[in-house]
Specification:
alpha/beta; eight-stranded mixed beta sheet
Length: 248
Amino acid sequence: MDPTWHQRPATDPRTEAEPDTDRHRRPAAGVTENQTEPDTDAALFWERHYRTRRAWDTHVNPLLAETAAPLRPGTALDLGCGAGGDTVWLAQRGWRVTAVDISTTAVERVRRRACELGLEDRVTAERHDLAESFPAGEFDLVSAQYFHTPFPLARVRVLRAAVHALRPGGLLLVVDHGSTAPWSWNQDPGVHYPTPQEVAADLGLDPERWSVLRADMPGRLATGPAGETATVVDNVLLVQRAAGTATQ
């Protein structure tokens, strides 16, 4: 998901500002930064969120850049594209990207941004509530960056759909929060951040068809919205479909 609090990365991903925090920092459940009463509907919440945001920061998430930079461009799926920083970065490097978000405003702005940059032939922006629908097609890369929401979502089911949408040899990159930043809305000391190993186990991957290439928890120095800094942890899972396996 790509909510609206992007503090963008510096060159070194170990010392970057908070990456694509639109997907990162959540307000209290169902409440946007310009709202006092909570929305109870996810689509209304995210639509209000994007319609009222003051700025659109469109830098790429550093772990996606690190993963995709050495790859040959192919087809990519950006789950919860939000402001579209990852989508644009991939398209500028030759990928054909399907960008999806629950917010119509986000989808329209990503589509408009692609046109402004002359990338309209490489970017397909679609509105999906991933609790109800999943984009069609097969992909060489599926990216789920900070794919969190304050609303109920069968996230495991969505990620299973994503891994089954990979072409043979394709990659699924899941980057989640692994710690609570001091500026996060949720300061519950008992919150549990699923480890990459737990996320992989939930997917129920057949080891003859999928391989876990990376499952780690790197730390980095992040910068919050008021300029404060803290070391935070990202939970990173990278899965590859085996070559020669049929897509189901």
